[in-house]
Amino acid sequence: MATDPVLVLYQRDDCHLCDLALAVMAEARAPAFESVFIDDDTSLEAEYGHRVPVLRDTQRGVELDWPFDAGAVAVLCAPAG
């Protein structure tokens, strides 16, 4: 049974900062995540348009706005408790 990814990275096409965020997430060895491109979604554009890239933990409802570093990603990915 497949489960939805806990992490979502909201980003844009052709976004240099989004590319940097992906590199930071790789450095932090973030678990599997979903990439959501906001370009063609008016509601996501309204919420994240000036903030992307944004990394969201969907279970906890916690978000990291750019700029974030590997340490912040590691804290976000750490088990609750």
Please tell me about this protein's structure:
By secondary structure, the chain is of the alpha+beta class. It has a single domain, classed as Glutaredoxin (3-Layer(aba) Sandwich). Helix content is 33%, strand content 22%. It contains 3 helices and 4 strands; from the N terminus they run βαβαββα. The chain has a 4-stranded mixed sheet with strand order 2-1-3-4, covered by helices on one side. A hairpin with a 4-residue loop joins β3 (54-57) and β4. The N and C termini lie far apart (26 Å). The model has no long low-confidence stretch (mean pLDDT 93).
Walk me through the topology.
Layout: E1 7-11, H1 16-27, E2 33-37, H2 42-48, E3 54-57, E4 62-65, H3 70-77
Parallel strand pairs: 1-2
Antiparallel strand pairs: 1-3, 3-4
List keywords for this structure.
81 residues; Glutaredoxin; single chain; four-stranded mixed β-sheet; 22% strand; 4 strands; alpha+beta
Shape: globular
- The class by helix and strand makeup works out as alpha+beta
End-to-end gap: 26 Å
Largest sheet entry: 4 strands, mixed
The Rg value, from CA coordinates, equals: 12 Å
User: What is the level 1 CATH name?
Assistant: Alpha Beta
Can you name the CATH architecture?
A: 3-Layer(aba) Sandwich
What strand line-up does the widest sheet have?
2-1-3-4
CATH superfamily: Glutaredoxin
Total number of beta strands: 4
Average per-residue pLDDT, rounded, comes to: 93
Element order: H for helix, E for strand: EHEHEEH
- Tell me the count of domains: 1
Low-confidence stretches: none
Strand content: 15-25%
Stated plainly, the CATH topology is called: Glutaredoxin
> Count of helices?
3
What's the helical proportion of residues? 25-40%
